[in-house]
Amino acid sequence: MSLQDFFRPDGRHLSRGGILLLMAPFFMLIAFAFLYPLISLLSLSVTEPTAGFDNYARILDNPVYGKVLLRTLWTALLVAITSLLLAFPVAMAMVSSSGPVAMLIGACILLPFWSSVLVRTAAWAVLLQRNGLINEAMQWFGITSEPIRLLYTQGAVVVAMTHVLMPFMVLPIYGALRNIPEDYGRAALICGAGPLRVFTEVTFPLALPGVLGGFILVFLTALGYFITPALLGSPQDMMIATLISQQLREFLDWPFAAALVGVLTLFVTAITLAFSKIFRFDRMMGGQV
């Protein structure tokens, strides 16, 4: 088989066989590093200590686990909404800017990728402690008369996770906004629409694929987040990833932890399928509308 067999007649695009050949190493890596461990872990949840669904029954019988799952879903939703509200203006500023200003905004968005999540979470722990910068600033401005509890709360978890995950919201929205022709906005203004109406009826609807792509990306990532909730949250605000870690490290209950992973996997899969059914994923990452 010659190299030409992997290209289409135009010589510029790969054939289906060429695409499969290039994707083969990626699929092998996914199968070895993700699918095999996941399937092995899920099989443990229905085979140990006895065959059956006893581990899943424990989750249904104890309302605490249901509350942890609902808290996880609620926290992930808050993080996704907050990230969207903060990311959209930033993405619009990136599209509207040029030269050094655009480079500065882009650097601020990409800079967090250069440090680990642990470092960024530890920085928030320093800022939110009783003698931290935020408490001292609020006392200096007269907002509070004494330090208040900011650390080890759900609010601290939401704020820190939003800071960590917001770049994953900005980039899809930025891609979608860049694909909107400038003539659309000018035409709306010529027809008598005000800036607010141009945004609500032209800009935002056309940017919706990027908004949805960023939202589902941040939401699904937040569902399984571990480091930030573990360091900044309290035991009363435990999320499911922290609960799984507790079952593994403290109780050594691998079958029950595997059942919790199965429940989380089920929720993530169901949410992903629901979004893929309603929206096309090839249009959700900033593609043309």
From TrEMBL:
GO cellular component: plasma membrane
Subcellular localization, as worded in the UniProt entry: Cell membrane
Protein's UniProt keywords contain Membrane: yes
UniProt keyword annotation of 4Fe-4S present: no
GO biological process: transmembrane transport
Domain ABC transmembrane type-1: 69-275
Xref: Gene3D superfamilies: MetI-like
Alphabetic keyword roster: Cell membrane, Membrane, Transmembrane, Transmembrane helix, Transport
SUPFAM superfamilies per the UniProt record, alphabetical: MetI-like (SSF161098)
Membrane spanning stretches: 20-39, 73-95, 102-127, 155-177, 206-227, 254-275
Major place of residence: membrane
Membrane topology summary: Multi-pass membrane protein
UniProt-listed PROSITE patterns: ABC_TM1 (PS50928)
Recorded superkingdom: Bacteria
Pfam families: BPD_transp_1
PANTHER family per record: ABC TRANSPORTER PERMEASE PROTEIN, INNER MEMBRANE ABC TRANSPORTER PERMEASE PROTEIN YDCU-RELATED-RELATED
Family designation: Belongs to the binding-protein-dependent transport system permease family. CysTW subfamily.
UniProt name for this protein: Spermidine/putrescine transport system permease protein PotB
Gene (name only): potB_2
